[in-house]
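In the laboratory, one determines a bound structure by crystallizing the protein with its ligand and collecting diffraction data. In a computational setting the workflow is compressed into a single prediction: the sequence and the ligand go in, and a structural description comes out. We illustrate the idea with flavin-adenine dinucleotide.
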Amino acid sequence: MDPQRQRIEEDLRGIVSGEVLCDDASRALYATDASLFEVWPLAIVRPRTAEDVAATVRWAAEQRIPVHPRGAGSSLSGDSLGRGIVIDCGRFLRRIVQTGATTVRVQPGVVGAQLEEHLGRLGRTFGPDPSNARVTTLGGMIGRNASGSRFLRHGAVRGRIVAAQVVLADGSIVDLVAAAPTAPADRSAEGLNAGGSALACSHLAAGMSALLEQSRWIIAQAQPASRYSHGGYQLNDLKRDGRIDLPRLLCGSAGTLGIVTEATLATVPADNATAVALLLFDSLEKAAEAVLKLAPLGPSACDLFDKRHLTLARSSKVAFDVLIPAVADAGLLIEFTSATVREASDRLDQSLVLMQGAKGLCLDIRRAEDARDAAFFWELSREVVSTLHGVRGASRPVPFVEDIVVPPAALPDFLRRLQGVLKKSGATAMLFGHACHGQLHVRPYADPREPAERLRLERLAESLYAEVVAVGGTIGGEQGLGLSRTAFFEKFFPELAGVFVSVKRLFDPLGILNPGKITRATTQPSAASSFRSSLAAVPELRSEGAPEGSSEVRMGSLAPARLLPVLNWSESQLIDEVDACNGCGACRSQSSATRMCPRYRENPAEESSPRAKANLIAGFLSGDIEIQSLSSEAVRAIADTCFNCHQCRIECAAGVDIPAMVLELKAAQVAANSLGFTPWLLSRVDTLSAIGGACAPLANRAIASPRARWLMEKMLGIAQGRKLPPFTGNRLMRWASRRGLTRPSRRSGPRVLYFLDTYARRHDPMLAQAFVSVLERNGIGVFIDPRQVASGMPMVSEGDVNGARKLARTNVRVLAEAVRLGYRIVCTEPSAVTCITHDYPLFVDDDDMARVVAATCDASTFLWELHREGRLRLDFHPVPGRILYHAPCHVRAAGGARPAEHLLRLIPELSVEAADRGCSGMAGTFGLARDRYRASLRVGLGLVTAMRGAGIEAGATECSACRIQMEQGTTKPTVHPVKLLAKAYRSLEGFGGVAAQGLDSLLTASSGRLTTSE
Ligand SMILES: Cc1cc2nc3c(=O)[nH]c(=O)nc-3n(C[C@H](O)[C@H](O)[C@H](O)COP(=O)(O)OP(=O)(O)OC[C@H]3O[C@@H](n4cnc5c(N)ncnc54)[C@H](O)[C@@H]3O)c2cc1C
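The predicted complex, in structure-token form:
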């Protein structure tokens, strides 16, 4: 760390109670947001209190270092990026402070969706609904004056803000309210402190009042009331009842006037009823014409989609393919709201009659018949916009031009002009907009890595903005001016930009509050010059002749000069994967509607988010972070926040393979430092279990003895509190051999190679027996090849690629042979499936790899497929009981369906409740380690609590680690669904095992020994 940052860190740590981060790894995580820009901050402060923010600002003002408030960092225009100190309000300031009858007081880090959930329980709503409400923070929404599809109904944040506690540029904490202007008072810090907030408000109100008066004509011209939203500071409606509404001014000010530390927001009754329809058109022009007809009817939402958007939707979901005809070139999603369902429905019908009456206007109309339909139609606005972020490839729709507001009446004219500009520039673009209030998002296809493309984007923006101005519009209405548009705004609205400079000077004479946004900083780079640089560095790296592709990791060898991929991808492929993460921050979601990143949920800090890993790798690839930092504590801690659950990979709109990147990162760390003792031990859990099994009575006594457990924690790092599964003696393979299962099956018809995992083999052989019995019951030949070895997943999780590769090579040889003989590879352990299908191809080169991957699945998927083909026997006996089923992350990663739940529902008298409580938090061996035990319990708390629910007799899940967690907090057992199927078939009895009385017998034997006599 350079001396300047060292000093900053020491100084700031002395004055704030929150966190201060100055290391390169942490800076890399805050150098980007959802925009194309990359600006490295000097330091990051994560305040715990308003006083922390104030102390930081005071110190920064003395040092003339800028500060940049940040929420979720999801701005599309680089609004929260800067070279000074980033103040991350999203980490600790997350409290809903007070809820009144018509207002709510929040800290800035409260997430939009979290607030709506809270208010929803009281029948109220805040209202403004940006499409990324699951991640955006209230501080960011105020900074951005966020709004969304329902702008017509709820407006933007500025319409709902009542008061705000802010830290001003001199570090004073002030309660900002609408204030009457008085004569300017003493603005020194002492003066303000003496008079307190009221004095500060009056002073600012007086300054603003004078400014508004001086600039009356400029404002009236450049911010007409006929335009719904405005770029930059919105000044046209601040003066009301002789007061200046200062909290309103804050909205959309991008943290350039003050940093919000608390805000009071007005709430309104939640909408009772809505009615939704999707209108389809054969041209954008006709859609625009329809907008003009619909607007007077007062819809609550009216979102416009272009052809590309509709095509993307059709390709993302079959249901959209059925819903939207291929000939549709444009669509409008309209919604009407009312007090009753009947009224909302009538209003919608009225609008549809109007549309049908206009001959040749609509191509088709789809009316949502119920709430499910409506939610599905809304996905077009909510989900498909995120999918835009997921479009991969060098050239893709980029958020640079993005944010345009035109008077709604000018929409048809503007759309023609837009097409003209695109045609002239030889560009294509995607268009999405909130049409009734003239808010449009235009995303041209471009490759921002190419310097020439950057220039082209700037020229395109300039031509387009000229047309916007020509129709009386503005830029930066919803997503701000930020680094993308501040310079353009100054060019197209020089007089108003001059007024903005005066506003900025009034609040922030030193220019330390997020400079360069809304008003230009003194040394403002050209808008495109600070595009993400890591990506531009690729050719340079390649021209050095870097070895591409997989290389063996050499433990303890000299560290290479930069991060070289050890997995089966070239440097440029790795960079493409990193590049596919556009920083939208959807992986910061804590919504119960997703299972996105359990680690972030447990510890909502930027480094826990999946995008942090992509940013970190980008830093290493570009050389911005020195390779020596790989061994640093900060990098280790960041890599450690991923426990390989794969939920980010499947829920990310762009499908960015964060687990593979983390494996790359951990492998590089292992190469530089070798594994620590506990990770090494846990990554060899199969060997440990084999040893335990060899001396089962002794080992079982040890894991049951508090003293021995204490010793194990101290010496081996295995958490004393963790309930460990007993050892059953390594006799499964002998049993399999005696039953002839260790030889290829001689049965004709479908055949399965059962890939054994450690748990079934060493701890729960009855599961293996149950699976074999179910397969045989259905006439399937079973082969347990004795040459197979453990999957190696624990090694993958710890980054020991060399160790995992050795196991993988053996397994791939064995499995490929079976696949050639027509076997399916089936595992009862879902993580083994992930390991074979996702991880092996990353580090094993084998011609048969693709075939092995295609043939591998988990037991429930295999049996459900059998059922769907009508080949699963359904002669189940009743199993009376009530169980809680938990879908493990690795089953979701394999395809998202819940085959086990469906199978269990086939069993008579078995009542199945789906848990839907997110990840269990066990993540293989993660939850066994002393240092991770508590984190594991915190992640799994929801599931463990659900297990304790009254009436639940037992749990069921496919994953052995989840089973350990589900049994941790209760006395109720948890079993693999296959055991319940075997029980329902009574097929285990044939193995000399469990009798058929009820659920109990099977459950008490849940982790039981072999059921046959040996
Ligand atoms: C997929 C996607 C969809 C989006 N959809 C919409 C949409 O529908 N509508 C919309 O309006 N925007 C949308 N956005 C843009 C953006 O995410 C939102 O504007 C959002 O409100 C920003 O919130 P944030 O918490 O991420 O703030 P950040 O991006 O971190 O910050 C935004 C601005 O607020 C300032 N700020 C943050 N905290 C504070 C604070 N405590 N005090 C003062 N200033 C502060 C920052 O300095 C910055 O200028 C979208 C973005 C994405 C990636």
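The CA atoms of residues 16 and 52 lie 5 Å apart. Keep in mind that any predicted model is a hypothesis to be tested, not a measurement.
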